[in-house]
Amino acid sequence: MKNKIQQLSVLGFMCVGQILFAQNTTTTTGGNATGAGGSVSYTVGQVAYTTKTATNGSVAEGVQQPYEISVVNGINESLAADFNLLVYPNPTSDFIVLTVDNVKYPNLNFQLFDINGKLIDSKQIKNSEIQIPMTELAAAAYFLKILNNTNKEITTFKIVKN
Fold it and tell me: Could you tell me the domains of the chain?
């Protein structure tokens, strides 16, 4: 009798093991890390994931998904041939230098925006080289937009402030 109970117990544990399913992935830790260059969200401990793909994108189940902001900027080819624009140093901590060569249009302007679209600075470009101070600004990403005399955008630079 004792032997039959042991056999039934073993059989029962085997059946229960087939019926119950445990968690496939154990995430041990995660969080957000922030530094001078930006921030990142992370998860440690995930060993497997499944990717689903469709015509309009893909998603990986259980994996943190990145959200990327990209500035796509098309320069009008007739304007691009007339300008040689350069911004340096990038990244910066004190100031950026904007150099404009081969200018055939007067009254160029620049506008400096923060990541939220707030206008920080706006001035007319009177010389072929202009220094734009950034010492008072917080460490973040900024956008420097160059406009022609009719306020039409020529190009936009992404500036990183340390």
Answer: 77-161 (2.60.40.10)
3-state secondary structure the chain: CHHHHHHHHHHHHHHHHHHCCCCCCCCCEEEEEEECCEEEEEEECCCCCEEEEECCEEEEECCCCCCCCCCCCCCCHHHHCCCEEEEECCCECCEEEEEEECCCCCCEEEEEEECCCCEEEEEEECCCEEEEECCCCCCEEEEEEEECCCCCEEEEEEEEEC
Amino acid making up residue 26? T
Please tell me the pTM assigned to this model. Answer: 0.52
Among the listed residues 112, 117, 116, the one whose alpha carbon sits nearest the alpha carbon of residue 146: 112
As beta bridge partners, residue 155 has 146
Q: Per-residue confidence of the chain (162 residues) as pLDDT tens digits?
A: 667 777 766 666 665 555 555 545 555 667 777 877 777 766 666 666 677 777 766 666 665 555 444 444 554 444 545 567 888 888 888 999 998 876 665 678 999 999 889 999 999 988 888 999 999 999 999 999 988 888 888 888 998 888
